[in-house]
Design goal:
Layout (H helix, E strand, L loop, with lengths): L4 E3 L2 E3 L5 E6 L8 E8 L6 E6 L6 E3 L7 E6 L4 E6 L8 E9 L16 E2 L3 E5 L2
């Protein structure tokens, strides 16, 4: 069972920035495609960004393009989501999720059911 541990959420004012981290202890991150998803109250879980295994291509939801950046450090076994120019509508619980490269071998997609492993989530609140 792959363990994912998110951190970095919090309260930030509109226009501010946060960096979320997703640590994958005791595993080799290089084998996994990792995605960030979010779920706001009363809404379905939606994809934000993903990073293909082995440091390959990335993908972003339209709402994240130009503001969010996903990156990974395969030595530290950590994936980051840098979020800039935050808006109140970005308020949600953010989850990282992973799927083995043998299951999702090509370009990563932001479809929650295709990810097998999930973290517990971290709250991001954008409010003045």
């Amino acid at each position: 069972q792959l363990q994912l541990v998110e951190s970095g959420g919090g309260l930030v004012q509109p226009g501010g920035s946060l960096r979320l981290s997703c640590a994958v202890p005791r595993s080799t991150l290089d084998y996994y495609t990792v995605g960030w998803f979010r779920q706001a109250p009363g809404k379905e879980r939606e994809g934000v960004s993903c990073s293909r295994h082995s440091g390959g291509s990335t993908n972003y939801a339209d709402s994240a393009k130009g503001r969010f950046t996903i990156s990974r450090d395969n030595v530290k076994n950590t994936v980051y989501l840098q979020m800039n120019s935050l808006k109140p509508e970005d308020t949600a619980v953010y989850y990282c999720a992973a799927v083995h490269k043998y299951v999702m071998s090509g370009v990563c997609v932001l479809v929650p059911p295709q990810y097998a492993y999930w973290g517990q989530g971290t709250q991001v609140t954008v409010s003045s």
